[in-house]
Amino acid sequence: MTVTPAVEEEEKVEAKPAEGFVFPPDETRLGVISAIIAVIIVIIPGLPAVIKAVGMIFALLWGADSVRKTSKYGLGTGVPSIGVLAMGYGIVGALLGIAFVSKIGYQVAALGGVLLMGVLGLISGMMSNSEKVIGMKIPKLERGMMELGMAGSLAMLLQLSIVAGSLNFDVVVDKAISNGLIALMFVLSMMAMFHPYNACLGPDERRPRTLMVSVEISGLLSIILGIALAATPGSMWGVADGVSLIIFGALVWIVFYVKFVKTAMREAYSVVGTGLIKTIG
Amino acid sequence: MDPILVIVVCVIVGGVLASLGVHLLPVGGAPAAMGTATGIATGTVMLMLGAAMCGLFTASSVAEFSGNILLVSLSGAVGAWIMMGVTMLMANLIYVFGTGIVPASGRVDVDPITKESQKEYKTPQCDGHGVPNVSYISGMMGALVGGFGGAFMYFALLNYANFEATMAGVTAMGIFVANAIIAAYNIGGTIEGFHDPKFKRLPKALVTCFVISLFCGVSVWLAANLGGLL
Fold first, then answer.
1. Tell me: the pLDDT tens digits for B89-111?
2. Helix, strand, coil shares of chain A as percentages rounded to 5?
3. Less Cβ around it within 10 Å: N or C end of chain A?
4. CB distance from B51 to chain A under 8 Å?
5. Contacts of A182 in chain B (CB under 8 A)
6. Using one digit for the tens of pLDDT, what is the confidence trace for B145-161?
7. Does residue B116 fall inside a structural domain?
8. Domain boundaries, chain A
9. Would you call A85 and B170 a contact, using CB atoms and an 8 Å cutoff?
10. Do the Cβ atoms of A77 and B215 come within 8 Å?
11. Which domain holds residue B205?
């Protein structure tokens, strides 16, 4: 049995995302940075899948952070509800986005769907928080729901664009929606949003540790998308696109999984291992 | 009729029925997992998502053969119905034979439907146990209404917005869960059924869900229109 004092560990643990800047910035800064990175990756056509996956990781990280700050106050229905809400909006937003792209012809138009879902999130947040309607009285719920709508739409758009290779309506419907992959994306991306806080919440919850889980699940999602992409190569990069995405996803998953388990074990008051996970740490 | 009107009306009907369905389900949440509250031991989202998924499966199977909106919607309702019925029955079996508690309502002293007395069977300090008769019937009504709404929305997206079957299913599910979650926030996570005092808050959720469904309906119409499906 390892007994580690929890107090002195507080400053030591710093997780680093793939990019290498200081992590984590505060909630607003993380939101702005993630949104800008995801938006830039959405609007540039023809990027390789790995870069789109980086954007997806940031969008999901933003969503997980918003879930965390919203459900900190207790929603009454459990943490998962708000993550599911985000992806519910995300699907509508992504459909709108690809429809805008096919009408206007530029990838920038996809942001129309993202913005509209931001507006819808703001409306639902205002109505949920308003005393006259539902009256949840959760601080900053409006902002949280707005961010969740936008993060969900961005994540969904990036996933559709990874699998289909572009954001053209017909191509996306053919390659990512009609074969049912969208249901997989729906479930796994809502897992990446709500699971971190749902699993880590408690009196000793710490933001960097929670967000690591989100990145880890995004890695798993990348592996699955990579397999789908390698099976049906869509973009000009061919099968290499899918294979590189699988490798990238596996790397992200392994790095963050090991990091999370190590951090959790270091910060725990005591760890009584059953053998399996103990051997990693 | 104009397609925008049909789609928006169908999405609103689906969303509002989803919200009504959530208010009728016996949701117990975490206390029910310990047997100290009435209802099924899980969150609203899981129950309603499960019921809606089962409803969509049956509805999409029937929609392959039939173009009748009532038939498809009713088949969705039946799918959701079966799921909720089995879930509540199994939950009750576990509560009664596993935990050893008697299903009893915590909100009313006398069952409004069967007129059975509830108070004697409620453990002091607890909020009821298991799924009593009135909650069971209420849950069946909720699943019927919710499944009908989900399948109604699915049919509209499939046939009026000309979505593909998968696309219609996933979009209907997305809009459905958004409405169900707003309704779940309204009841604060747990409710026993139509006899629960929280049921009186229903109009507030219906107004919110109306606005959200209106927005989603217009978005779906816009997507179908710009995507060249209409």
1. 999 999 999 988 889 998 888 99
2. 70, 0, 30
3. N
4. no
5. 166-167, 170
6. 999 999 999 999 999 99
7. no
8. 2-271
9. no
10. no
11. 9-93+137-216
